[in-house]
Amino acid sequence: MKGLILGVFTNENEEGPSQFTNAADTFDKHVSGKLRELLAISGPSLKKGKTRIFHGLHQDFSSIVVVGLGKKAAGVNPYENWDEDKENIRAAIAAGCRQIQDLEVPSVEVDPCGDAQAAAEGALLGLFEYDELKQKKKPPVDVQLHGSDGTEAWKKGLIYAKGQNLARYLMEAPANHMTPTRFATIVEEKLKSCSNKVTVHIRNKSWIEAQEMGSFLSVAKGSDEPPVLLEVHYKGSSDANEPPLVFVGKGITFDSGGISIKPSSNMDAMRADMGGAATICSAIITAAELKLPLNMIGLTPLCENMPSGKANKPGDVVKAKNGKTIQVDNTDAEGRLVLADALCYAHSFKPRAIVDAATLTGAMDVALGSGATGVFTNSHQLWNHLYEVSSCTNNRHEGD
Q1: Where is the Cytosol aminopeptidase domain (predicted)?
Q2: Above 90 in pLDDT, residue 251?
């Protein structure tokens, strides 16, 4: 039993018959125009992101899901700075794959819809669900490309989506399961299987103390979970001496706020306060699988921020790796404390650039909402590169 997902575009005036993709048009000819006929009588023109399911049209496919792709050649949205064509494909294919999964169809072929990479990303992103701890799990779906158009782009899209899903998995896992040690172990296991150009160092508390990372350690000391500095090296460049790009990610695997404790409402979401670490580790794993020709280093200071008799207190003064002292006015501002030492350590590699990712402050969400990411930079050249590539990956930013 196998499913098939096919795409259709909305006409410019959003009325009249939908415009089929090449794959959908070819399939319709194989079934003597029945798909077009059924689509026409099943309701109004299929809107963007909506789906319709048909059965019994073809002996090879038990279920056909037709998905709405919106207007063809929508282009880059100048206000959001994202490629609407790619995003429409991702969203539509994701919706179609979820329909197939709900039907408990074990395998599905996916229309490339003119962009096989975006289709592959949508398929795997749509099927993701953190259900590791559930007794009843949704049935797995084997996702394949329909036809041979865009095979290499499809494979690339699967790698991109797997990387994003890994970050989602790390962030969604409960904090008692995703401890600093467990996080580091998972990343190490993933990197071992994807490239021999990767070296992983799981730095323990003794090493961190030897590095005099007092700022990082001051946050970690409130928890019974030991801290870890996860250090990942990927050498993809043919020139081993080429300066690396260093990525630093905040890795607070649970943030209670410490002595300056957070309100209990929605505190469970603070299991994802290691989103920066999850993102940069997943990015390096993806780069290694894609065999990108560059050198990268990932640094993630991992620990919990908990209240206890050993925890930082408001007014305490701690000393960072570079010898600077820091007065802690609010223990819920722990992100900058762990990152300060990691960023200081990052400079020892003489990098081309340092990129820091962190769920650093809720004020950013207040200012920008969920539709954009705040960016602060001292390099306009680096920012311009990030801004340009974000239109393809659909990561939206507000720069400063």
Answers
A1: 330-337
A2: yes
Q: Around Cβ 65, how many Cβ atoms within 10 Å?
A: 27
Active-site residue identified among 2, 36, 52, 336: 336
- The reported pLDDT for the residue numbered 400 is 40
The β-bridge partners of 299 are 231, 248
Residue 81's pLDDT band (boundaries 50, 70, 90)? confident
Spell out the long-range contacts of 24-28 with Cβ–Cβ below 8 A and sequence spacing 24 or more.
Answer: 24/66, 24/111, 26/147, 27/58, 27/64
Whether residue 368 is contained in a domain is answered as no
Does one domain contain both 125 and 270?
A: no
Neighbours of 342 (CB within 10 A): 26
180-234 tens-digit pLDDT = 999 999 999 999 877 679 999 999 999 999 999 999 999 999 999 999 999 999 9
Side-chain-facing half-sphere of 260: CA atoms under 13 Å = 13
Domain extent for 127 = 3-166
CATH number of the domain encompassing residue 240: 3.40.630.10
CATH number assigned to the domain comprising residue 86: 3.40.220.10
- Please answer whether residues 385 and 308 qualify as being in contact, where contact means their C-beta atoms are separated by less than 8 angstroms: no
For position 343, what pLDDT does the model report? 98
Amino acid at 148: S
User: Which of 379, 297, 295 lies closest to 342, judged by CA?
Assistant: 297
Predicted local confidence at residue 13, as pLDDT: 62
Q: Is 336 a catalytic residue?
A: yes
Please check whether residues 53 and 182 belong to one and the same domain: no
Question: Which one of 190, 262, 324, 350 is the catalytic residue?
Answer: 262
Which one-letter amino acid corresponds to residue 47? Answer: K
Q: For the segment 290-311, what is each residue's pLDDT rounded down to a tens digit?
A: 999 999 999 999 999 999 999 9
pTM exceeds 0.90: yes
CA distances from 79 to 71, 87, 396 (A): 17, 15, 10
